[in-house]
Design brief:
With about 80 residues, this protein is mainly α. The chain contains three helices and no strands. The longest helix has 23 residues.
Length: about 80
């Protein structure tokens, strides 16, 4: 079984992008910009990137189900 050579880069990139999205969301609140579409998009992208990062750490070496509740939430269908 070959190990993924980009393993530590993908979760780090996911968590950094989630942090940057939080900054965009905070700037949206600080500037009192009433763009509801940007707010919903930021929430959804933060949730997705955090889910992808957690999924890549939890199932980094194998695909054995370790956390059944987490898989039921929707993380198992996020990566193939």
């Amino acid at each position: 079984m070959a190990a993924d050579p980009t393993y530590p880069l993908f979760p780090i990139a996911c968590f950094l992008s989630a942090a940057m999205l939080i900054l965009v969301l905070l700037m949206n609140v600080i500037r009192q910009n009433g763009n509801l579409g940007v707010t919903f998009l930021c929430f959804w992208l933060i949730f997705n990137t955090l889910t992808y990062g957690a999924t890549s750490i939890i199932w980094s070496d194998n695909a054995a189900l370790k956390f059944y509740v987490y898989c039921d939430i929707g993380a198992c269908n996020s990566q193939s």
